Fold this sequence. Notes:
Layout: H1 2-39, E1 46-51, E2 57-60, H2 70-77, E3 84-91, H3 96-113, E4 116-126, H4 128-135, E5 138-141, E6 147-150, H5 161-186, H6 190-196, E7 201-204, H7 205-210, E8 216-219, E9 222-226, H8 237-240
Parallel strand pairs: 2-3, 3-4, 4-5, 4-6, 5-8
Antiparallel strand pairs: 1-9, 6-7, 8-9
Helix pairs in contact: 2-3, 3-4, 5-6
Amino acid sequence: MKIKQRIFTLLAVTAIVAIAVEARCSDLTKVKQLHSESTQVVTPKTRSFGTLNAERTIIIDSTIRRGTLADGTALINNLKKNQTYYVIIDTPGGSVDEGMAFIRTMQTAKKLKNNKSVCIINGAAYSMGAIIASYCHQTYIDPILGSMMYHQVALGVRGQLIQITQLLAFVARQVKIIEIDLASQMGITYDQYKKLTTYEYWLTSEDAVKLGYVDGFATNYIFTVPEEKVTLKRFFRSIRGE
């Protein structure tokens, strides 16, 4: 009799454990489904149309300092006519002088040799990084990692008061020249640009595509653009009220 009771008890415990395990597995399945749903990235319908050429690619993946863009400048200068080159951007920004010199090289190559640039924001395009991206013939952004930020020029100076005053006056004039040119490139007025950059202006990848700051997305260096591209007007469509 005792043996039968033990067997019955053992079978009951086994059944309870089996039910608990089944319930736990069911819960885990639901959790995984919920996690998958919550982390699913929704992207607009797109069409693919190209990939980059590794031999004509410039990578800007650090703070822009003196000499940082020397290799990229040399690559652009050595291009043949009508060749397209690619600039991968993941930088917090840096030197205005170095960045603008690189942009002038891009502009000269386009004017004299019809070399067109395709920029891919593969991470951060902040400060001078965003400005370089704004001068590219076409610009694309990684839908997950990409982001942009525009702001006013930041600098620090030391020295005698009269020297600092003169330097600041010179910098203000020089920066205004650059900002007027950048505003023209973006299709807005200088006053609109100044208003935009009074504070740091941040853009997610979706913001950048939706508002026309870039032309589309780049995933694994395969470029895609929204199907409604006919309505996409680069740059600053929202600011112009279009």
